[in-house]
Amino acid sequence: MQYMLLIYQDEKAWAAAREKIGTEVMPAYVAYTKALKESGVMVGGDRLSPSSSATTVRAANGRNQVLNGPYAETKEQLGGYYIIDVPDLDAALSWASRCPGTQFGAVEVRPFFNMR
Amino acid sequence: MTGTARAAVALAARQSYGKLLAFLAARTRDVAGAEDALSEAFAAALATWPEQGVPRSPEAWLLTVARRRLIDSTRRQRIRADATSTLLLAMDELEADRGTAVDIPDERLRLMFACAHPAIQTEIRAPLILQTVMGFDAGTIASAFLIAPTSMGQRLVRAKRKIQEAGIPFSVPEREELAERLDAVLDAIYTVFAEGWTDAAGTVARERALADEAIWLGRLVVSLLPDEPEARGLLALMLHAEARRQARRDAEGGYVPLAEQDPQRWQTALIDEAEALLRAAGATRRIGRFQLEAAVQSAHIARRTTGHTDWAAIVELYDALLALTGSPVVAINRAVALSEAEGPAAGLAALDALAGDRRLAEYQPYWAARASLLALTKDTAAADNAYERAIGLEPDPAVRRFLQQRRAAL
Q1: Residue A55, Cβ neighbours under 10 Å: how many?
Q2: Hey, which end of chain B has fewer CB within 10 Å, N or C?
Q3: ipTM of the complex, rounded to two decimals
Q4: Residue B102: pLDDT band with limits 50, 70, 90
């Protein structure tokens, strides 16, 4: 089954840890990505720019409005994702727990809509 | 008064939950029904004790209320009349003595044997014991075992239904079967401990508590089955590990491997207790997996007094363990010990022999062991690769940092 791991991170905590990011967190992400690949479960994944770069389009009263910023101002923002193919949810949770993203917020595990 | 009554309910829950559930479930085989009745009894206690005072025997009070609820609900569901009458009979036995403190027989061990029955899926045995004997809710258990709360809930429900429908007995097996079946019970308890152990610093209160609960269960089994050396072996193993918990982290929260730990930070009282248990178990001359694992721990901490580690002895213990279990995890530990005793090349050769095992591809300790041995043989590129793999597979940030430091030092 395919799952998306959505990495929500506290952008303030991330910014505050800037020193550690380059030396510790990014290498951990590289290692994590490699482990996913070599275990044969990686389908895809990428990192997003900070939520300050986001622009949101939403229809209000029948007209599209373009707004600055992410769709919701929450403490934790979507910062990246992985798509993995694993046998079941337990396996997906086990991979999510290894994701360095859990240190800076949360990793949400969502199965893809079943298109049978 | 309200505070005291609440505390009394909490204490009764801690001391009596498993005992009461075991007593009720053993008679009806309906674990879920017994759980419902018992939780209603605890709710009733919370409602009435603050006003009417704490009864002389809280346990008997809770049992009486739970029993009524259980009988009511079995009648409502028109469950076989014989189940109800068995229950009534059993209760009457106890109630003959009503008013005085009733001595409820401790049937938690029988409950544990039912939960760890071969007909119950291996993975759900430990969670089932946590729920029935300790009264943990499904959400807490799910989180500890890294399982989605809804699936954990469903699996627990299914397992309880299985106990009822398959007619799994609430009994301690006969002597011929005891050793093998006891293994499953001990295994489940050790699983609880291992889940609690992953939080080395004990920063997460819940996980810390899980290790405590496992030790409590271990003590319970030893007290109920004093002649079984493996029960003692398991308790010794858990106490040894627990004794070193604090030493596994430095002041900054960094991970400290066993070989670099300061023996001064180990808890002597726990070690002494573990050693005494191991000696008592050894006297029976019936060796087993848990005794061997505890013996490995014992050999590791010997440097506390001798100043050095006898690696050859540890390899021998792992040889025996490997012959007994055939576990790839044991084989990895053996390879590491072998490299200490005979040099990294010997350890690497032993690890290479395991390389074909698919289960190890996602097993962090295999890659970490490989990396450190490759580093010792100066194969820097291969060591770097193996460290990276280990880092990618490690969920604990402190251990991840430790591996990153080792990798950077190559």
Answers
A1: 9
A2: N
A3: 0.82
A4: low
